[in-house]
């Protein structure tokens, strides 16, 4: 189920304003990658470029060695799933109906709904603990439940690559952990190549195998959490001084930011 995803000399822009400029990235296949960096640095823009939602002004994105912009839309949807930052919920749709939409890319002109489809949808609902809410309208769910419903739809799509744009936004700490544990479980079970944008460095270090640190539309550093979550990289990317200690339970790096001094008048 793993896929390869590569950006070569990739530049991305909005209204001729360049956000990502000449970026090269090789996403580790079968691993969980987290893109981190300050607000406005180009993280979500990069994810849009990797998913083909935003066409490059220069360079290209390769999915399994093929230029993603030249592939049929349905073929891309069978190989790459995307959970955007603020997905729009169709009015009145139930959890089950939303999750079933994840199977649409696998249906051709003559292919009917099958037992395999039912099995995949059921497994996605079970993995996200939404079985009891299958008949509930999505717009009546809590924020955490709604996010899990969208993740379930992405799981039902059963793609070798999955891109997640800030999947823990607006969630409390317990629901953040639920979603990220789910992502790790998917990667462990299926070998899915996962790329996600995260704001929380501690969560990124704990749940990702590979970190990509961005600033001003460029990659500043990339590597394992131990290589990236360091005082030097944090200061160069976020512009703050911080200490890094090891979590006494897991050994994962934990960031302790220093107070920023403000001028007093």
TrEMBL record:
Gene Ontology BP terms: iron ion transport
Cellular location(s): Cell membrane
Membrane topology value: Peripheral membrane protein
SMART domains: AAA
Domain of life: Bacteria
Major location category of this protein: membrane
Gene Ontology terms for molecular function: ATP binding; ATP hydrolysis activity
Pfam assignment, any one: ABC_tran
Keywords: ATP-binding, Cell membrane, Ion transport, Iron, Iron transport, Membrane, Nucleotide-binding, Transport
ABC transporter domain mapped to chain residues: 5-241
Keyword check for Transport: yes
Alphabetized InterPro entries for the sequence: AAA+_ATPase (IPR003593), ABC_transporter-like_ATP-bd (IPR003439), ABC_transporter-like_CS (IPR017871), P-loop_NTPase (IPR027417), Siderophore_ABC-ATPase (IPR051535)
Tagged with keyword Amino-acid biosynthesis: no
GO cellular component: plasma membrane
Name the UniProt record assigns to this protein: Iron-dicitrate ABC transporter ATP-binding protein
Species assigned in the record: Knoellia sinensis KCTC 19936
